[in-house]
Amino acid sequence: MLLLNMNMHFAQTSNRAKNMAGSNYGGYQNLSVLTWNNSTCHYGGTSSGAFHVIVGAGTTPPTKEDYDMADLSIVGNDLLRPILQTATYSHANNGAVVTTSWRNDSAAPITVTEVGLAFKYNNGVYDKASNVLDARKVLETPVTIQPGETYVFSYNLKF
Questions:
Q1: Which residue stretches of the chain are H helix?
Q2: pLDDT in tens, 25-78
Q3: Distance (Å, whole) CA 62 – CA 41
Q4: Category of 126 on φ-ψ map: left (φ > 0), alpha (ψ -120 to 50) or beta
Q5: Burial category of 26 from C-beta neighbours within 10 Å (exposed 0-12, middle 13-18, buried 19 and up)
Q6: Is 141's pLDDT higher than 80?
């Protein structure tokens, strides 16, 4: 679901999106940023200025007013860890596809039940205040990632 945050994030108006920590984000973006490739720009990375797919363990349905994932407890240095972000754009009819690879660095299976599309505007690592969540959905079929496995999550946007 596209969130109200996305409208404000791209509208270039005085209304401001909220970062994932709940504070106002003072910037805005152009849609062309959806296609920027930055392999180290993800929730656990040290780069900024690109979109990435964020994952969680929440089951609460999204609402337009959401600015954070329902449950980020599975994300962290010793749990589920993002390792690579890429973005591709194929054609105006197909939209933008943003993908992020996540690896299970824990000793137990981890189940992902929600995914989101976030923009990282600051280089904080695992920092909600460095990210703006623009879209979020609960998966119809949860994905379980075994220890040591990597799974690629994609978010496709068509306008």
A1: 4-11
A2: 878 777 667 777 777 888 988 888 888 999 999 999 999 999 999 999 999 878
A3: 24
A4: left
A5: exposed
A6: yes
User: What secondary structure letter does DSSP report for 8?
Assistant: H
Q: Using CA atoms, how far apart are residues 131 and 123, in angstroms rounded to an integer?
A: 9
Helix (H) or strand (E) holding 112: strand 110-120
| pTM metric for this prediction | 0.90
Closest CA to 18 of 27, 29, 5, 7: 5
What does the block give as tokens for 7? 């409208």
Q: Which amino acid is at 42?
A: H
Q: Would you give the DSSP letter of residue 23?
A: S
Neighbours of 48 (CB within 10 A): 16
User: Which tokens go with 144?
Assistant: 């379980």
